[in-house]
Structure formats: structure tokens, C-alpha cells
Write a structure and sequence with these properties.
- The complex is a heterodimer of chains A (about 200) and B (about 260).
- With about 200 residues, chain A is mainly alpha-helical.
- Chain A is built from nine helices and two strands.
- Chain A has a two-stranded antiparallel ribbon.
- The radius of gyration of chain A is 20 Å and the shape is globular.
- The relative contact order of chain A is 0.10.
- Chain B is mostly helical and about 260 residues long.
- Helices cover about 60% and strands about 0% of the residues of chain B.
- The longest helix of chain B is centred in the C-terminal third of the chain and has 24 residues.
- The chains are: A mainly alpha (about 200), B mainly alpha (about 260).
- At the A-B interface, α2, α3, α6, α7 and α9 of A face α1, α3 and α4 of B.
């Protein structure tokens, strides 16, 4: 990975950042800022909080950059650190990292369907903005597991470890998140059809 | 297989964890049940589309400004040694122990006044207001006995605007409100920034580009947030955000105070 403006590779920037070079820190920031900020934003659905979290993730990374030995990809390291920063923040704020709705919604296993309506299919592709809006509407616990698994590509065992739940719980939360998203997307599509 | 049985095993099914015998039973059910079949297609579609969501969101410029300021404050950004093949585009900052702080102390009141102005703007109801130059100076901006020394020791800011004048102007801005929100950053603030950059140029020329970029970023943030607050005067978060932006600008001045003395 090379920063086009600086013309140096990520590995070179890491070594220079270890020496305390501001420009190297900035290169690393610009290389990864979108992914880190987008992850934070998807997990908390609040731009101001996402800014603070992205800032904290980069600061934690830069404080520990001397310990980076290159065994894993730098982006993986940063990514995990970002997730941990976000989860820590959710815990601090008392928000459920794993959704409590599991115990509250007894009928959550089955998809909701209004009587007298046909269970229409979400055909074709889903609009990116609509999907993002639907993700934003998810309860925090469901959103966390969905974003980590389906968007960011973490495995259930990794999520269970980071979030502090069982693998089964992670799978269950993911499934319920997808069901809710389906409901939201259908609702949005129906609303859009009504308004023309 | 009933729909309820199918939906109970669906999470495992989507996870790809079922044996062949069970798979055959599931497929038979899916062939005969449109609802369950649609459900599976939808959930797979959602999962597939989610994987294709790109990291497109760009964080505002102020995020890097804050990170850089914190790295400097913590001493993580250090003076570079000359390294072949790598020339930082920006000067690298050094955190040194305080010395002869008086020499650039005229910046401190500006920083304080920025926060004061920001506090006033945020705190004022409906149409927040900012000051004009005809008001009396306030306590926070009095440069006191420092200014004459600075003027003598560092003629950089003279003759067009002495260091003593700068804090007074900023002070006056926070002292008496007018009826507009946008007046804080221009043109008085621009004059302050020019004075500030001019002082940086003279005392630490290599740092000018850095501060100029950072001032532009933070000023853009202030302008943008001011406009938003004006449209949404009741938005508490936005007001807090504006206050943070003023504090960032003050921090920038403060860092300069530490570095160019």
C-alpha cells in the first residue's frame, strides 16, 4: 500500500512513524482514515461519536506503533483496535454490546408478516443508502454483530471473543439482525412506492 | 418439514452447517414453500450486499488536527533525523520543555479569547452573537506587562500590528455581541490568523505551512458548524461541536505558543 501524495509505502511510513515523524503518522492516517471512520460510524450511527472514536483508535495505534512487528497486517491490527475502542465506548455508555432484545422478543425467531399481505421478496439488489439506513436503525447489539460479521468479515469465534459472548449468541444475534433488516428494507420499499 | 421447523434451523443453514440428509429435507421444503424460499433469498441478498458496502465515509479534517495536536502534546511526534529517501512534506514538531515563555505570550490571550468567544457564541440563545471592536477590553485578554517586552524583543509583529494589539482586538470581539453569528471568523479573525502566521513565519519559518493548513481546516470547521447552528439553533450537539471547534483553534494557538517561543 502506497500513499500517492507522499510516494512512500505503508511499511516505510510505519518505520518513520516509529521515529516520531509527523508526516509518517499523517500518511498512515490518510491511508486508513476512511475504513476506520466508516467502521465507527456504522457501529454507533452517530457522526460526532464516530469522529471521537476514530480519533481514539488512531491515537491508541500510534501510541503502540513501536510494538508493531509486522506479524499481522497493519490494517488488521488497526481494525481490531478500532473495534475494541468502539466496544469499550459502548460498554462505558451502558449500551448493550449484545442485544437484550433476545429475552424480550419471544416471537423474534419468525419473520413478521402482516395478515392478508403477501410475503413479497426483496428482488434484485438493495440500494446502498437504504441498507445503510436500515443498519442504522438496528438496536445497538444487533448492529454490532451484523456490522462485524456481514460488513467487516469477522468470524463468529472472533466476534464472540471481542464482544464477550458465546459463538451461539453471536450467530443468533446475526440472524435476528438480518431478519430485522429485511423488515426495515421492505418497509422502506413500501413507503417509497407509496410516495411514488 | 413445517415452516416453523425450517425457520428454527435457518441460522445454521445460512451458516452452511448442515449434513446432507438434512439438506435434502430443507430443499424439498423450499421447493414447496415460496415464503421460506423468499426468506432465504432475502437474507442471503442482505448479507451479500452488506459485504459490498464500501468504506466511503470521509472523516472531517478536524479529526487529523486533533490527533496531531495530541501526538505533539504526548511527545510522540519528534524532530526527524535526516532519512534518505523520505522527506516529510511537513515540518516535524518538537515538544521541548518550556523556556522563555514570555517571548510568545501574546498568543495566549488570543487562544483564551477564542475559547471565550466560542463560549459566548454557543451560550447565547437563538442568534448567537459575537463582538465588535468598539467594546471595552475584558479581563481575559489583557496582555498586561508582557506585550511591551514582546514588542521590543520580537519586532516581528510590528509595525502593522503589534503583539500588544492582537489580544486587544480579540478581546473586544468577545466583549460586545452583535446580531450575527458569522462575524467571529471574518474579517477580524482572519487578521488574527494572519498576525499569527506572520509570527510563525518569522520565528519558525518551516512551520508556517503546517499551521496554515491546520488553521484552514479548523476555520472551515468553525464556518461550517456556525452555518449549521444558525439553521438549527436548538441543536445542543451542534453547539457543543462548535465549542469544540473553537477550543481546537485555541489549542492550535497554544501549541504555537509552546513551540515558537
Amino acid at each position: 500500500m502506497t500513499d500517492p501524495k507522499q510516494g512512500i509505502t505503508e511499511a516505510e511510513a510505519i518505520e518513520q512513524a516509529k521515529q516520531g515523524h509527523e508526516a509518517a503518522f499523517e500518511v498512515l492516517y490518510h491511508l486508513h482514515k476512511r475504513r476506520v471512520y466508516s467502521l465507527c460510524l456504522r457501529m454507533v450511527s452517530n457522526p460526532a461519536q464516530a469522529e471521537d472514536l476514530a480519533q481514539e483508535a488512531f491515537l491508541q495505534l500510534f501510541r503502540k506503533i513501536n510494538t508493531f512487528r509486522g506479524e499481522s497486517a497493519f490494517s488488521t491490527w488497526l481494525h481490531r483496535m478500532t473495534v475494541n475502542v468502539v466496544l469499550m465506548q459502548l460498554r462505558k455508555k451502558g449500551l448493550p454490546v449484545v442485544s437484550l432484545e433476545e429475552t424480550l422478543e419471544a416471537d423474534d425467531e419468525t419473520p413478521r408478516k402482516e395478515f392478508g399481505t403477501k410475503d413479497v421478496k426483496l428482488t434484485g439488489s438493495i440500494d446502498r443508502l437504504q441498507l445503510q439506513r436500515a443498519i442504522d436503525r438496528l438496536p445497538p447489539g444487533y448492529r454490532t454483530v451484523f456490522v462485524l460479521h456481514d460488513v467487516e468479515g469477522f468470524e463468529h469465534n472472533e466476534i464472540a471473543q471481542m464482544v464477550g459472548c458465546s459463538i451461539g449468541n453471536s450467530k443468533s444475534q446475526l440472524h435476528k439482525a438480518r431478519l430485522k433488516l429485511r423488515d426495515y428494507l421492505k418497509f422502506m420499499r413500501a413507503e417509497k412506492a407509496k410516495t411514488g | 418439514m413445517k415452516c416453523s421447523d425450517f425457520q428454527r434451523v435457518l441460522p445454521e443453514l445460512l451458516d452452511g452447517a448442515q449434513d446432507d440428509a438434512f439438506q435434502a429435507e430443507v430443499e424439498t421444503h423450499l421447493e414447496s414453500c415460496a415464503d421460506c424460499s423468499n426468506l432465504v433469498s432475502d437474507l442471503e441478498l442482505i448479507s451479500r450486499q452488506a459485504r459490498e458496502l464500501e468504506a466511503t465515509e470521509e472523516p472531517p479534517a478536524r479529526v487529523w488536527v486533533r490527533i496531531a495536536a495530541e501526538l505533539r502534546a504526548e511527545g510522540l511526534i519528534r524532530e526527524p533525523e535526516s532519512t534518505p529517501g523520505f522527506a516529510p512534506s511537513r515540518p516535524v514538531l518538537v515538544r521541548t520543555p518550556p523556556r522563555r515563555r514570555w517571548s510568545a505570550l501574546w498568543l495566549a490571550p488570543i487562544a483564551a479569547a477564542l475559547v471565550a468567544a466560542g463560549t459566548y457564541v454557543i451560550g447565547h440563545k437563538a442568534t448567537p452573537v459575537v463582538a465588535k471592536q468598539d467594546a471595552p477590553p475584558t479581563q481575559v485578554t489583557t496582555p498586561a506587562p508582557v506585550a511591551p517586552q514582546v514588542a521590543q524583543a520580537h519586532p516581528v509583529a510590528t509595525p502593522t500590528a503589534t503583539p500588544r494589539q492582537a489580544p486587544v482586538q480579540v478581546a473586544n470581539k468577545s466583549a460586545k455581541p452583535t446580531d450575527t453569528l458569522e462575524t467571529e471568523t471574518e474579517p477580524e479573525s482572519m487578521a488574527d490568523d494572519q498576525q499569527f502566521l506572520s509570527a510563525v513565519s518569522t520565528r519558525a519559518p518551516s512551520l508556517r505551512a503546517t499551521y496554515e493548513n491546520q488553521l484552514q481546516a479548523v476555520n472551515a470547521d468553525i464556518r461550517e458548524t456556525q452555518a449549521y447552528v444558525k439553521r438549527n439553533p436548538g441543536d445542543v450537539d451542534a453547539r457543543q461541536h462548535l465549542m469544540d471547534a473553537y477550543e481546537q483553534k485555541a489549542l492550535l494557538y497554544q501549541i504555537a505558543l509552546d513551540r515558537i517561543q
